[in-house]
Amino acid sequence: MMDAAKWTAAANDATVENQTTKQSLNLSTLASDDNGNRKSRDSAELEALRQIYEQICAIRNNHADIVAENAAKRAAVCN
Q: Is the distance from CB of 8 to CB of 50 less than 8 angstroms?
């Protein structure tokens, strides 16, 4: 799984690729206020997804710590 830094990098790469594609298709002539609003909404959605992903990573790491602690306790009791 990707950590938060890789997630952010992947999102940034996708944004750059998307911008390059738009430029190659010469869509700049179609730019409008709606396009600007969509970009800000997309940025907000990406930020929300990034925060959710960071929370998932934190939960996963916490779970892994708990599992390791339980395994250590189990090993101590069984020995």
A: yes
pLDDT tens-digit readout, 25-53: 555 555 555 666 777 778 999 999 999 99
Residue 31 half-sphere exposure toward CB, CA atoms < 13 A: 9
d(CA 37, CA 41): 6
Report the alpha-carbon distance of residue 38 to residue 1 in Å, rounded: 29
Give the tokens for residue 78.
């069984």
Distance CA 72, CA 66 (A): 10
Distance of CA 24 to the CA centre of its chain: 27
Domain-wise residue ranges, the chain: 34-79
pLDDT given for residue 5 in this prediction? 60
